[in-house]
Automatic annotation (TrEMBL):
It holds the Pfam family FBPase. It is found in: Cytoplasm. This is Fructose-1,6-bisphosphatase class 1. Its main location: cytoplasm. Mg(2+) 1 binds at residues 93, 115, 117. Pathway: Carbohydrate biosynthesis; Calvin cycle. One of its GO terms (molecular function) is fructose 1,6-bisphosphate 1-phosphatase activity. It catalyses: beta-D-fructose 1,6-bisphosphate + H2O = beta-D-fructose 6-phosphate + phosphate. SUPFAM superfamilies: Carbohydrate phosphatase (SSF56655).
Length: 339
């Protein structure tokens, strides 16, 4: 076995060589995302040291308090990407409206949706956070991008990925030919291939959810969790609960170890939220794309996440993602409850 040191740029170029029609635009776009990720990493890794720690007084479009680093990460993503000539429009969790490409810059054929810093309430306690991105092709007519370019179903993504700022910083992405992970070597400033062709196990004993919401879930979801505790896998391996409250970290572990990540709708209780919390376009769809590319399954309990045609930018959706057998089982119980 030979070990090669392969940078993310080199890996993208090698992949593109298989597609003679590729003009390098996509790899250029990924390079700009990577640059933004390195700048965000630099700030996140210093969070405990400076006054960036703590909340601002701003409330974002979802009525949540925005941490200073969220704003910073959002600004970095926009500034790194708005002038490159590859994008025609962007959307971010932090911006209520689509983000146009300024008139002075050329417009390109790709569309970018992102969550600049997911799980940011975890920054104060030094738990991993992450950035998530989803790339589509422009479908509208005219030079500049439009809302319809942003509202495309997930199966049409040209690529998707996340950066996890954890005990090490990793980029995990797919352009439709497998899922590959790259770990940042901070001393040289490069993401190096460390996890080639990631494959999620077919089933797993780890479940990842905010079990504090148990009483608000539907009977099928409750039944699934009770089943997990009783008989986690066919091999009778006992279950483990792992939940950080940072989806990027929880999905990353699920990709590597298998099992299921779930954020169901809350249907009972004083403040029901049947759509759950997570956003379809820049949280669930890119994660579903990666999970499927790694051989897993992702749904809202009834429908494949990647088939859902979005109707608004910040739409929320219940989310079940992970090992295919785990997700199939929770889907079966949800269908049963509805019968
Ligand atoms: P955010 O986009 O405001 O950071 O919220 C998304 C995060 C996810 O990373 C995580 O899975 C979830 O919120 C945790 O929510 P809860 O605290 O309700 O369990
Ligand atoms: Mg988020």
């Amino acid at each position: 076995m030979t070990y090669k040191i392969i940078t993310v740029q080199r890996h993208i170029m090698d992949t593109q060589r298989r597609y003679p029609q590729a003009r390098g635009e996509f790899s250029d776009l990924l390079s700009q995302i990577i640059l933004a990720a390195k700048v965000i990493y630099r700030e996140v890794s210093k969070a405990g040291l400076s006054d960036v720690l703590g909340a601002t007084d701003d409330i974002n479009v979802h009525g949540e308090r925005v941490m200073k680093l969220d704003k910073f990460a959002n600004t970095v993503m926009i500034r790194a990407l708005d002038h490159g000539g590859h994008l025609c429009i962007m959307a971010s969790e932090e911006n209520e409206d689509p983000i146009p490409i300024p008139e002075e810059y050329p417009s390109g054929k790709y569309v970018l949706l992102f969550d600049p810093l997911d799980g940011s309430s975890n920054i104060a306690v030094n738990v991993s956070v992450g950035s998530i991105f989803s790339i589509h092709r422009k479908i509208s007519s005219g030079k500049r991008g439009k809302l319809e370019d942003l509202l495309q179903p997930g199966y049409k993504q040209a690529g998707a990925g996340y950066i996890i700022y954890g005990s090490s910083t990793m980029l995990v992405f797919s352009t439709g030919v497998g899922v590959h992970g790259f770990t940042l070597d901070p001393s040289v400033g490069e993401f190096l291939l460390s996890h080639e062709n990631m494959q999620i196990p077919e089933s797993g004993a780890i479940y990842s959810c905010n079990e504090g919401y148990f009483n608000s879930w539907s009977p099928g979801v409750k039944e699934y969790i009770l089943q997990m505790k009783q008989n986690a896998t066919a091999e009778n391996k006992s279950a483990s609960l792992r939940y950080t409250g940072s989806m990027v970290a929880d999905i990353h572990r699920t990709l590597l170890y298998g099992g299921i990540f779930l954020y169901p709708g809350q249907v009972a209780g004083p403040a029901p939220k049947p759509e759950g919390k997570l956003r379809l376009l820049y949280e669930c769809a890119p994660m579903a794309y990666l999970i499927e590319q790694a051989g897993g399954r992702a749904s809202d309990g009834l429908r494949r996440i990647l088939d859902i045609a979005p109707d608004s930018l910040h739409q929320r959706v219940p989310f079940f993602a992970g090992s295919s057998l785990n997700v199939l089982e929770v889907e079966r119980l949800i269908r049963e409850e509805q019968a």
